[in-house]
Amino acid sequence: MESFSTLIRTASREQHEEVRGSTFMSDLLGHKLGVDAFARYTEQLWFVYGALESGAERLAGDPVAGPFVRPELFRMASLEQDLEYLRGPGWRSGVSALPATLEYARRISDCARTWPAGYVAHHYTRYLGDLSGGQIIRDTAERTWGFPKKGDGVRFYVFEEIPNPAAFKRDYWELLDAVPGDELERQRIVSECRRAYAMNNAVFQALGEEFPLSA
């Protein structure tokens, strides 16, 4: 019988490829966009992770979502350091969320409040995605705009408290396999993973409209 973690990875692979193939991300990774586009993307992450990590505080003792609340994953402090570097000390007065970002953050908050297993779906798509594929973005930003290696501007992508990402991910797969619930509930979680990827892709599409020129 296929494990639940394998089911999630298989079912969400198509959506993951759509995100990787978005025009905005292709242009960003292809050195066609300026640092302002990167900073704008970082702003959107701040809103999304704000929803994730405020939800984590409420769910730390939950039997379903609680095991996934791992402080070594938390990104908000790093995001705020990056935004101060990218936007200056008054960055909070200037950041804004795109409508697609607000919808994404609201969905995460709704799951955290009413459906812990759905929150796990968003936790998986975000944290493991940035722990893995995010390293490509970090490397691109360092080479394109001269950011200090694993320093200011890209601290979000540096998981200092996870020295062995491969081992961490193996442990994470085991946590997914142990999520309680019948087959119907597991299918609902898989569907929420797909929804999370679609919402993330909508943010990329909106960013692509805001930065339409590959210059």
Written description of the protein model:
The radius of gyration is 17 Å and the shape is globular. The chain contains ten helices and no strands. Helix content is 68%, strand content 0%. With 215 residues, the chain is mostly helical. The chain starts with a helix and ends in a 5-residue tail after the last helix. It has helices spanning 4-11, 13-20, 23-29, 35-59, 76-87, 99-114, 116-132, 134-145, 165-177, 183-210. Helix 1 runs parallel beside helix 10 (183-210), helix 4 runs antiparallel to helix 5 and helix 6 crosses helix 7 (116-132). This is Biliverdin-producing heme oxygenase. Keywords: Heme, Iron, Metal-binding. It holds the Pfam family Heme_oxygenase.
Shape call? globular
Mean pLDDT equals 92
Relative helix content: 55-70%
Number of strands: 0
End-to-end Cα distance, whole Å, is 50 Å
| SS field, number of helical segments | 10
Q: From N to C, what is the helix and strand string?
A: HHHHHHHHHH
Could you tell me the radius of gyration in angstroms? 17 Å
Poorly predicted runs are none
Biggest beta-sheet profile: none
- Class from secondary-structure proportions: mainly alpha
Our estimate of the beta-strand percent is: under 5%
